[in-house]
Structure formats: C-alpha cells, structure tokens
Amino acid sequence: MAEAVQLRPPLDEEAVRSLQAGQVVLISGPLLTGRDAAHKRLYDLLEAGEELPVDLAGELIYFVGPTPARPGKVIGSAGPTTSSRMDAYSPALLAAGLRGMIGKGYRGPEVREALVKYGAVHLAAPGGLGALLGSKIRGSEILAYEDLGPEAIRRLMVEDFPVVVAYDAHGGSIYDR
Fold first, then answer.
1. pTM over 0.85
2. Dihedrals phi, psi of 24, to nearest 5 degrees
C-alpha cells in the first residue's frame, strides 16, 4: 500500500489536481461541516446573489452531524453522512470556491462533472467509524446556523483525519473499478 498523502487545508487547485482516485489521504488543519439543511441555506443564498456566512474558497466540507461531546472531549462521534443527499447543492458550492467534500457513498454525474470543471475532489470517510473519526478532531467552533444543532456549519480542527480519494478532479473514481 502506498504511503498516505498529507493535506493541509485550505487547498489550492494544484494540490487537488495532484490527487488520484484511490489514494489514502490524512488531513490536518481546518474542515468545515455541513449537511442537508445547511447546504440548502447556502445554495439559496447563492441563488439569491447574497453573501455566504462562510468563505468557501479552498475549503473542504465534511458531511457530518456530530454527536454531543462527552465530558473532557471536544466532540462526540463524527461519522460521515451519505453524500448523495447533497448532490443538488454541491455544483453551486463548488462554483463558489469549495475545493472538496467528505462523505460516504456515490455522487451523481452532475457533481462528478463539477469536480472536474472546478478542480475539486470528493473524499470518502469510512462509515461505521464515527468514534475513531471523532478522536481525530482537536477543536470545534460553530460558524453559522447554530439553530440547526448538530447540523450547524462548524470549523473543525483535525489531525491525521483519514479519508480516501473517491472522485478526483480528472474524472477518476474508486467506484468505477
């Protein structure tokens, strides 16, 4: 097995285009979070030509709704949400500068085309390992939509957060193999 690629967001297009489907990646640094409701709000703001509550340029967004932190912990379990639930919103967010997404499962053809067009990547986090993934989170801060509870947009600080390149910026996919 090849050595894992180290990534430190925010990411530029060159870093993302160097990734290939199937590569193991360890992320250290900031990640945004957001699920369905937050994505819809961001999408609606873009459609209305309004300013977003967070700058998406170069960012990775993790599709997660973490559980509450236990005493002495930063966050609870933080397993990925099914990615296809964000497909209707992802192309617009990529056009706004988002550099990548993290979730589980397949992405639709429009998202795959947008990844290539905008030089972005979709990373797969292992489902069923929410406790392990939560242990890689060193900090958590709510940035927007606190009313959504666990689905609020947060900035997580992660260290050696393990993912796999599921869809690369060249049209490659681990699911096509």
1. yes
2. -90, 135
Task: Summarize pLDDT for 68-79 with one digit per residue, the tens.
Answer: 888 888 998 999
Instruction: Select the CATH number that applies to the domain covering 5-176 from these four: 3.40.50.800, 3.90.1300.10, 3.20.130.10, 2.20.25.10.
Output: 3.20.130.10
Rounded to an integer, the average pLDDT of 90-110 is 97
State the amino acid at position 110 in one-letter form.
E
The two structure tokens encoding residue 88: 């209707």
Q: How far apart are CA 35 and CA 87, in angstroms?
A: 11
Q: Which amino acid is at 109?
A: P
Residue 177 has pLDDT above 80, yes or no: no
Alpha-carbon distance of 145 to 153, in angstroms, equals 6
Q: 100 pLDDT band (50/70/90 cuts)?
A: very high
Give 155's strand partners. 32, 141
Rounded distance, CA 39 to CA 127, Å?
Answer: 21
Burial of 14 (0-12, 13-18, 19+ CB in 10 A): exposed
For residue 50, CA distances in Å to 44, 73, 92, 96, 152 come to 9, 36, 13, 12, 19
71, with CB counted inside 10 A (0-12, 13-18, 19+), is exposed
Give the C-alpha separation, 30 to 60, whole Å.
8
